[in-house]
Amino acid sequence: MVILDGGLATRLEALGADLSDELWSAKLLVENPSLIRRAHLDYFAAGAQVATTASYQASIPAFRRRGLSLHEAEELIRFSVRLAAEARDDHGQGAVAASVGPYGAYLTGGAEYTGDYDLDEDGLVAWHRGRWNILASAGADFLACETIPSYAEARALKRLLGETPGVRAWVSFSCRDGEHISDGTPLRRAAELFSGDPQVLAVGVNCTAPRHLPSLIGQVKEKPVIVYPNSGEDWDAANRRWTGLADPVEFGAAAAGWHAAGAAFIGGCCRTTPEHIRRIREHLCGV
């Protein structure tokens, strides 16, 4: 069993960062990289065994749109891996997962939760390839293909894996209910894309409501299951506040149930904190 980290952007905001920007946490690669390193260290201290890099939204087109050169954009993506590795080394142990965010994160507007894309599979391969090759050669232990909402995007990422035979990755989908990824494809079908792929170390879900996990875990066959849901909160627009399963103690107790159901990699995504990870460790490791 492997304990993952929690919401990187959530921790950065708690440390005072303003992430109201299309680059989200990736803007701190330019403005305040030391804060990213500190957030990684905070998660390691809480019990995480993996640091997921700040490259989720760090695409070459987004950096170029910000006025950076191609070389500068590429170096910042590599820098995201170096920051996580430095935190890992300072902590003394752990692994680094280079985040490969979906095309929808670049589009903004929530497309990573719908899979409503303007590119087909070939277009998605072409869009991902530049950043993929940078992250694949940047020294991370593996790639984290995460919040994938689309079957076509999953197929595109599988093709890129085939182009980089020395790389290992996990693949996690955003899901809209207990059976389907965000574009409506059954998770079971999406997971089957990777069932015989030796480069894929785990398949599962992330940034999905915790209430769906017991059903979703059962949809993944032939691969270790990875889950790192969001906090389960919903945004109450009328009262401008989050509501739902935010309590870290409850989250940690729920994680014990996910592990019992078959999840081998467990952590948190949006709105989860180092305290959520600490509680997961307590429930799963007893310390």
From TrEMBL:
Residues binding Zn(2+), per UniProt: 207, 269-270
Cofactor: Zn(2+)
The organism of origin for this protein: Planomonospora venezuelensis
One BP term from GO: S-methylmethionine cycle
Lineage of source species: Bacteria, Bacillati, Actinomycetota, Actinomycetes, Streptosporangiales
InterPro entries recorded: BHMT-like, HCY_dom, HCY_dom_sf, Hcy_S-methyltransferase
Any one GO molecular function term: zinc ion binding
Domain annotation Hcy-binding: ranges: 1-284
SUPFAM superfamilies reported in the protein's UniProt record: Homocysteine S-methyltransferase (SSF82282)
Annotated protein name in UniProt: S-methylmethionine:homocysteine methyltransferase
Pfam families assigned to the protein according to its UniProt record, in alphabetical order: S-methyl_trans
Top-rank taxon: Bacteria
Key words of the record: Metal-binding, Methyltransferase, Transferase, Zinc
